[in-house]
Amino acid sequence: MIVIIDYGVGNLASVKNALDKLGAKSVISNDAEIIKKSTALILPGVGAAGQGMRNLKKQGLDKVITQEINKGKPFLGICLGMQLLFENSEEGNVKCLGILEGSVKKFKVERKIPQIGWNQIDIKKSSEFFKDINDKDYFYFVNSFYCLPKDKEVTAGITTYGETFSSIVQKDNIIGVQFHPERSGKAGFQLLENFVKGANDVS
Amino acid sequence: MLAKRIVPCLDMTEGKVVKGVQFVSFRDAGDPVALAKKYSDEGADELVFLDITATVENRNILLDVVRRTAEVVSIPFSVGGGIRTVEDMRAILRAGADKVSVNTGGFKNPKLISDCAKEFGSQCVVLSLDAKKVGPNRWNVFINGGRTDTGVSTVEWAKKATKLGAGEILLTSIDTDGTKQGFNVELTKRVTKAVSVPVIASGGAGKLEDFAEIFEKGNADAALAASLFHFGELTIKQVKDYLRERNIPIRD
User: Fold this and answer.
1) B222 CB within 8 Å of a chain A CB
2) What's the whole-model pTM score?
3) What is the CATH number of the domain that holds A110?
4) More confident residue, A52 or B26
5) To bridge A24 with a disulfide, which of A121, A184, A196, B233 should be the other Cys (CB 3.0-4.6 Å)?
């Protein structure tokens, strides 16, 4: 059972709908016990970093997530859920989970902010996660901030919006995507399917 | 590169899609959920739902449409019509919409825009703005379904609303809406120049060239059309193939 972590920041239903369509069993929950028993975790998220971290901490989920990731459980962070993996965010100068080294920066202002719409990725790593995904495939982005990993090796995909940034990170059991696979048509579904398959192989 | 978006719009009343010509006289154009699925499958980049006769009774019908749409589409969609409170917005987002558009409710109560942006993030809050030319180089904001002139200039309100937290603007030109004579390039250009958020141009799409023009000359980030797609006069694929040939960045 995949758990979609509910921390009060929206777009949970669309992630759940996408997993349902793929035939993957999932549940939306904020219950530590259910999260611990899961086969894989998805941390979705639309909203601000400060609110997101506050909500996670209030429910003690920051510790649970860190523990489960350290145990090697397959983890997918989407949008804000990716950003929270890093050490800190410029969005309100918030200290985040610190599971990955690096920070979250705001786009330079000469661009329209937020970036809203379909943008392309370039794949930087060979991985089962990219099965049937091609360079230049489009995904749906909604973001004003982006992740700047300290370790260049974790960058698995890049995207350009004024500046080039890490739109996909991957390290061991952790995957983070800046875009919304659940709203990215066929390519997005393919990525979710690849994640689900990878998670099944582990468990 | 960020792609320009093609956005079919579904104007609805009592759970059915209708499309007006210059905001009056409606022709039935079908079931919203089926149509949404069709457009999503055909390569639409986003969908816009507008409940044009939003009433309390209609709200539950609308939420049901949103819920069923969220189950079948794999692209983002916004929903608007009669949004007056943060709770109105919450209900629609919970039902599965990605964004909510505010129009009259936001104009009468600008705090609604800042409250919603704080609660859900700017990316969820779309300012829906209906503009009409009232003099040389002057477009005013019209509210109440395009019936009431507010006396406020479009650029002024667009700037203020984005400062309050609107993350995107859905700009409808009442003058060109339903005419199929092309988008309002002049108006769109002014608004895109004045704000730093994406602008969806709406009203007047009639032929392929209109889409190229609103991107190339109007600097729009997205172009919306309704009846053109509903009645099959152009398909989304035709529009996208054409724009790609013109070297406008478009998602495959």
Assistant:
1) yes
2) 0.92
3) 3.40.50.880
4) A52
5) A196
